[in-house]
Each structure stands twice: as structure tokens, then as C-alpha cells.
Amino acid sequence: MADISLTGGQGAVDPAWLKLSRGRPAGAVDTPRRRRKLGPGRPIPYGAALGPALLLILWSVGSATGIIDDRILSAPWTVATTGWELIQDGRLQENLWTSFQRSFWGLFWGIIAGATLGVIAGLSRIGEYLVDGPIQIKRAIPALALIPLLMLWFGIGEGMKVLTIALITFAPIYIQTHDGLRSTDARFIELAETLDLSNAQFLRHVVLPAALPGFLLGLRFGVTYSWLALVVVEQVNATSGLGYMINLARTYGQTEVIILCLAVYAALGLSSDWLVRFITRKALPWRKILAD
């Protein structure tokens, strides 16, 4: 029997055979990828930082030329100096860690609730009838309007703050997961029935891949909403956190501290959004979209 080793020797596989095995004709020549005439164009390295950088430049120029009054909006260098002082004191790190924990746990429970209810309502008619209606009612009521009631039920401690963030973040995750499941191509379901897949195999090979794009889109909204909710709940009788620093700075008229905390909120939200987008690209390598 002839040796078909790929490393050479008698009977070694010919390179032309390798090209055919990869679905390419023998003798094919590599050609550069043609640039698309339509679409947004090729990605630019670190292009996502252009928008924030432009905003920072405009802010710096406006402060340096006096167009922006320091009493209304502190200059970037003033905010940076204040931030360095707060870092040296340790106050910024301590309050940032407290805010991060609140946002993390609120988002965590929001993801659990939203994904679970989305799967239940997406895979079962009875589940949809029982779950979807109450959630749509909840969506019609602003979550922030529930804060007074949550304060009466759970007090003004950490539990109320985490629960408020969870209530705000779970809705978009539920909606996108539910919609992703209900938008599954019926041909995939017919194929699963033809192959006689078990319920576990159906969930693994059909349901989860179908729901994943919607879930990740909902997660992107949920991450952003968790930081927005955090800004609000930390204004309610908080004794630590970035919101507490904002309230304290407002009392003493420290505009630079307020701007610093808002900048930290913005940086956290922006970095979280980039992280979810990165996870989406890695989790859905098979999807070809215009952004590619």
C-alpha cells in the first residue's frame, strides 16, 4: 500500500491534491480580496476611538479658548488633576469598586431572569401566555417609577439597588432572546424532526444557536442599561459609590468631581459595550454581516 504521508517521501500527497481537498481547483492562484464598492468600507485599526478622541479634542479646545466656562464645565486637565488626587487618596478606587459590584450583580440576575424567561416563552405556548403578558405590562411601567415602591418593600440598602438594576436589564435580554427563538427558520425544526433528534439534542444544536444572536444583542442593551440604572439608584441614600461622590460634589459645588464621575461612568459603559461586541464576534464566527 502506497505511503500517503504529507511530509514527503514515496507516495507523498501532491500539493495539487491538497488544494482540491480544500475545495480549491488545482493550479489556482491566490488573488487579493477585492474591495467592496458598497458597504461601510474596511475596518480601521482603533477606529472606534476616533469619536471619543474627537469629543475630547473639542472639549480641550473649547476650555483653552474660553468658549466653555470652567464654572459650567471644568477643563479636561482640571478633571484629570482631580482624578489623580482622588486616586492617591484611594477614594476613587473604593467607590468605583462599590459601583462595579452593584452593576455586576444587577446585570447577573437580569441575565439569568431574562434568558430563562425568554427560553420558556420562546419554546412553549403556555409559557408565552403566562410570561409575556406580565413582562409587557412591566415594560409599560418605567422601572425608575418603581423605586419608591421598592424602597417600601426592601428598604434603601444594597438589595433594593441591585434589584432595580436587574429589573431594568432583564427586559431587553428577554425580548431579544424570545424573538430570536420565535424567528428560528422552520426548516431547521423540520430537519431536526427528520433526524429524530432528542429534546436535549434539539436544544443544543437548534435552539441555542438560534437564540444566541438575539441573546447577545439583548446583552449589549442590558450592559448599557445596567450603568444607566446605576447612576439613578446611587442617588438614593447611598453612602458609597460614584453616585454618592456626585451627590457630595454637588453639595460643595465641585464641578470637576461631577465631571470625573460621569467620565468614569461613560468609560465603563463604553468598555462594556466593546467587550460584548468582541464576545459576539468570537461566538458567531459563522455569521457574515455588513460590518465584516
Structural features:
292 residues, mainly alpha, disordered N terminus
What does this protein look like?
It is a single chain. This protein is mainly alpha-helical and 292 residues long. The protein contains eleven helices and no strands. It has helices at 15-21, 50-65, 76-89, 91-123, 125-140, 147-154, 158-182, 186-194, 199-233, 242-251, 255-283. Helix 4 (91-123) crosses helix 5 (125-140) and helix 4 crosses helix 10. The chain is globular and about 70 Å long. It starts with 14 loop residues before the first helix and ends in a 9-residue tail after the last helix.
Strand-residue proportion = under 5%
Overall body shape: globular
Helices and strands, in order, run as HHHHHHHHHHH
Task: Please provide the count of β strands.
Answer: 0
Query: Mind telling me the C-alpha Rg?
Result: 26 Å
Helical amount: 55-70%
Main sheet: strands, sense, barrel = none
Low-confidence stretches: 1-23
With helices defined by DSSP (H or I, 4 residues minimum), what is the helix count?
11
User: What is the structural class?
Assistant: mainly alpha
* Distance separating the two termini: 47 Å
- Rounded average pLDDT: 79
